[in-house]
Design brief:
The complex is a heterodimer.
Chain A lengths: L3 E3 L2 E4 L4 E8 L11 E5 L6 E5 L3 E2 L7 E6 L2 E7 L7 E9 L2 E4 L3 E5 L1
Parallel strand pairs in A: 2-11
Antiparallel strand pairs in A: 1-3, 3-8, 4-5, 4-9, 5-6, 7-8, 9-10, 9-11
Chain B lengths: L2 E4 L3 E3 L5 E8 L8 E6 L5 E7 L6 E3 L7 E6 L4 E6 L8 E7 L5 E2 L3 E5 L2
Parallel strand pairs in B: 2-11
Antiparallel strand pairs in B: 1-3, 3-8, 4-5, 4-9, 5-6, 7-8, 9-10, 9-11
Classes of the chains: A mainly beta, B mainly beta.
Chain lengths: 109, 115
């Protein structure tokens, strides 16, 4: 089974920009993996932020964007706000099913 | 709007089975597949398997193969996930997630396995 990797933790200053990445042990991440990004705050269910690489949900703030970058899926936050502090998970689809990354704990400090 | 409402928290003893339900509304039930995902305390999200909403075909993660069964009742617009031979490591929040373009999540069901 594929392994999906994310940075365990990142810190960004308020108003700053940060990029989270999502890699696959099988090779480059492509649009065929239909990358998703979810935000999860303590005690809450995950919430979809980005689907199919770069599409935003109706509730996704404009400061979040998704892309493919250097063979990985990427989530960029431009203009971080205190309320963006959360765990972020990526999800890739394979023929065998879904595989989640280990999550990135984002601190806004 | 789409709603996925899961059954309530469960406490089970090791070796027992648990069956969690996920009642869907706000869309055509048979048009979408449903996944089950779990999250142990402080751990990552973990995919367990999914069921095709149209024909009931299933696919399970190798990790849970033989222990998990996902079924559906189209008349009740409900999907079920049954996990057997429970052990303490199965203590987790279990989520259903609709396989739509955007992925919609249930609220989660806490299953505690303890003697």
């Amino acid at each position: 089974q594929a392994v999906v990797t994310q940075e365990p933790s990142l810190t960004v200053s308020p108003g700053g920009t940060v990029t989270l990445t999502c890699g696959s042990s099988t090779g480059a991440v492509t649009s065929g993996h239909h990358p998703y990004w979810f935000q999860q705050k303590p005690g809450q269910a995950p919430r979809t932020l980005i689907y199919d690489t770069n599409n935003k949900h109706s509730w996704t703030p404009a400061r979040f964007s998704g892309s493919l970058l250097g063979g990985k899926a990427a989530l960029t936050l431009s203009g971080a706000q205190p309320e963006d502090e959360a765990e972020f998970y990526c999800l890739l689809s394979y023929s065998g099913g879904w595989v989640f990354g280990g999550g990135t704990k984002l601190t806004v400090l | 709007q789409v709603q996925l409402v899961q059954s309530g928290a469960e406490v089970k003893k090791p070796g027992a089975s648990v069956k969690v339900s996920c009642k869907a509304s706000g869309y055509t039930f048979t048009s979408y597949s449903m996944h089950w995902v779990r999250q142990a305390p402080g751990q990552r999200l973990e995919w367990m398997g999914w069921i095709n909403g149209a024909n009931g075909n299933t696919k399970y993660s190798q990790k849970f193969q033989g222990r998990v069964t996902i079924t559906r009742d189209t008349s009740a617009s409900t999907v079920y996930m049954e996990l057997s031979s429970l052990r303490s490591e199965d203590t987790a929040v279990y989520y259903c997630a609709r396989d739509a373009t955007t992925v919609d999540w249930g609220q989660g069901t806490l299953v505690t396995v303890s003697s």
